[in-house]
Amino acid sequence: MKLSRRSFIKAAGAVAGYAVLGVNIAKEAAAEVMDFVARRQNSVYAADANKDIYKYRKSQDNPMIVKIYDPKKGFLHDGPCGHKSHELLHTYYYDRSSKLNALKEKGIKLNL
């Protein structure tokens, strides 16, 4: 059976919780966590529904973004996909496959 790192950590945490707290207390703790998640989810949805908090639901409607990309006097006047915005906002890829291959050659199995 293959486990990803995330699944292993979840399983190890659950097993440790059961071992330390016992089954009943661990079930109560899991129920409290799920209750917290539900309350947090409801509060996020309620805040998202409140349009007074979020004036601009889309970034292209934000006046600061419009001002930055203004073709006449904006800082990024050449547009969202222009040279200057690409230069300032682009992230770069670094090939790290040689390090990964070195680990594989040593016999280390990774679930990526």
Structural class based on helices, strands and sheet pairing: mainly alpha
* CA-CA gap between termini: 15 Å
Low-confidence stretches: none
What Rg do the Cα atoms give? 24 Å
Overall mean pLDDT stands at 84
Beta-strand content: under 5%
- Number of domains as seen in the coordinates: 2
Query: What percentage of residues falls in helices of 4 or more residues?
Result: 55-70%
Shape: flat
Sheet with most strands: none
Count all strands and give the number.
0
Number of helices: 5
Helix and strand succession? HHHHH
Keywords: Iron, Iron-sulfur, Metal-binding
GO cellular component, one term: periplasmic space
Subcellular location: Periplasm
Pfam family, one: Fe_hyd_SSU
